[in-house]
Amino acid sequence: MVDFDVVIIGGGIVGLATACALKQTKMNIAVIDAKHDLYQELAENEVKIRASAINLASKHYFEQIGIWSELERSGRVLVFDSIDVTERQGFARLSANSASFHYDQLGYIIENQLMQNTLYQCANTQSNITFFHQPVNDLFFSSDRGFVELSDGCKVAAKLVIAADGANSLIRKKQGMTLLKKPYRHQAIIATVKTQFAHQSCARQVFYADGIIALLPLWQSHLSCLVWSTKPQFASDLLIRPPHLFNQQLSELTEHCLGDCSLVSERELFPLVARYCPKPVQDRLILIGDAAHTIHPLAGQGVNLGLQDSKQLVDVIIKNYLAHKDFGLKRIFNHYQFMRHKDTMMMLTAMQTIQDTFDGASPIKKLARGIGMNMINTTPFIKQHLVKYALGL
């Protein structure tokens, strides 16, 4: 039996961020993840397929952890200062520029692997953080401890177990925790594409009758992270379509906003499902990140939502740890659970509303969304409020 203060199950971005944020205390922290390749070397001139839009709230959290300067030094962080949302063969449009709202930027596009690498390096150099690279076999709880049994027979105990083990969380399933889920009627194709024209640090989204195409600008001026969400049958076809035909349709559907598009990576397919665990907090156990909720990627807010879980959770743990209180008790996290419930439900509702609004080619819906989006686009107060929310301010 190895005893710790906190055990974190899951070595992804959210789990590692939580470990790194707790490192400043004298707590002993365990991170459990079966994968041995949490750190993967990044080729100098190649980009990883998956990237995320990081808002200012997440940037501030990375600064608090102490990794933001390291991310910037990599030269692979793209500051984007504008967004452009359009509807193909429609007149709905929403655009925003950071200068119009007196911000230096609207956010940052960062490869997921770069964030994970940087967080892993931070955690791996801390004397009070220990990694276990074995699958979880079982877990159980007493009045004052959570116990995690690993596949090699080792048992790890802690006052609090934090499950950040992803959308298909083993811990959530083993504990029989309620999960509400609803398919988005979409699957997402993710890839890296090269565009004829430079992206000019603008994040673009194109809505059309059968899906949504997002182009997130990357640190190389002609490369973007493509997130193409569409109906499952069409997504499956896109996955195996010959590259020249894939490129042709992508260029046509985006109305050549960046000229001709061409694949420069493999394509990955992801089912899109809204998930929500209404009671992610138990005595000695808390679910965070995708283990607690997943949302549609159309606004790029999934990672930010998980990082705010982490930040607010860490704040509660440290406050009670310094006050010599038992931070493993459910009642300690009542306010935390309320705040995360509110933020998550707002995001889930917003994503569902946007998808429903743009789904289909009904003339009445096209007219309504065109009028609605253009009203927002020409009303500074409403637009500023939306921009501040997206920034996490």
From TrEMBL:
<dbReference type="Pfam" id="PF01494">
    <property type="entry name" value="FAD_binding_3"/>
</dbReference>
<feature type="domain" description="FAD-binding">
    <location>
        <begin position="4"/>
        <end position="320"/>
    </location>
</feature>
<protein>
    <submittedName>
        <fullName>FAD-dependent 2-octaprenylphenol hydroxylase</fullName>
    </submittedName>
</protein>
<keyword id="KW-0560">Oxidoreductase</keyword>
<dbReference type="InterPro" id="IPR051205">
    <property type="entry name" value="UbiH/COQ6_monooxygenase"/>
</dbReference>
<comment type="similarity">
    <text>Belongs to the UbiH/COQ6 family.</text>
</comment>
<dbReference type="InterPro" id="IPR036188">
    <property type="entry name" value="FAD/NAD-bd_sf"/>
</dbReference>
<dbReference type="InterPro" id="IPR002938">
    <property type="entry name" value="FAD-bd"/>
</dbReference>
<keyword id="KW-0285">Flavoprotein</keyword>
<dbReference type="InterPro" id="IPR018168">
    <property type="entry name" value="Ubi_Hdrlase_CS"/>
</dbReference>
<keyword id="KW-0274">FAD</keyword>
<dbReference type="InterPro" id="IPR010971">
    <property type="entry name" value="UbiH/COQ6"/>
</dbReference>
<keyword id="KW-0503">Monooxygenase</keyword>
<comment type="pathway">
    <text>Cofactor biosynthesis; ubiquinone biosynthesis.</text>
</comment>
